[in-house]
Amino acid sequence: MVRPIHIAMASRRCENCARFQKSPLSGVKNAGAERTEGKEDGKSCQKVTVRMTIRKNDCRSNRPVNIVSCDGKCPSASIYNYNINTYARFCKCCREIGLQRRSVQLYCSSNATWVSYSIQEPTDCACQWS
């Protein structure tokens, strides 16, 4: 659905907008299920759980770990500005709001030991100016 975009310097309907790109998380396994949808599916920015094996040097998690990430659709536009005779770009990205630390146990094959590896996960996600 095409919606009108209203900006103080110009008011113009986006007649020929490009489709949203596929999400960088498309095709990544999500809690055991394959994620095949991209941003064009209409889902707004939100926290998602992605299963992945964590690797650091020769250490890795014993099994895939549920990691919280941000993914989804955010507004963007390119609107002609007659004052400067070019287009003004307005883009927001789906990003984290706040981070929390979390420890993941990794097994190191070179010396057969376990180490605690610290990662940061978003506490929430929202569309933010980039």
Plain-language structure description:
The chain is mainly beta. It has one domain: Cystine Knot Cytokines, subunit B (Ribbon). Helices cover 0% and strands 59% of the residues. The strands form 4 sheets. Strands 6, 7, 9, 10 and 11 form a 5-stranded antiparallel β-sheet that branches. A hairpin with a 4-residue loop joins β10 and β11. The two termini are 24 Å apart.
Regions with little confidence, pLDDT below 50 for 5+ residues: 1-39
Output the helix-strand order: EEEEEEEEEEE
DSSP strand content: over 45%
User: CATH topology, anyone?
Assistant: Cystine Knot Cytokines, subunit B
Secondary-structure-derived class: mainly beta
Overall structural domain count: 1
Number of strands: 11
| H/I helix tally | 0
Q: So, CATH architecture?
A: Ribbon
What summary fits the major beta sheet?
5 strands, antiparallel
The CATH class label is Mainly Beta
Superfamily at the CATH H level?
Answer: Cystine-knot cytokines
Ends apart, CA distance between termini: 24 Å
Rg, nearest Å = 20 Å
Helix share bin: under 10%
Principal-axes geometry comes out as elongated
The averaged pLDDT comes out at 78
Subcellular location: Secreted
Organism: Polypterus senegalus
Keywords: Disulfide bond, Secreted, Signal
Pfam families: DAN
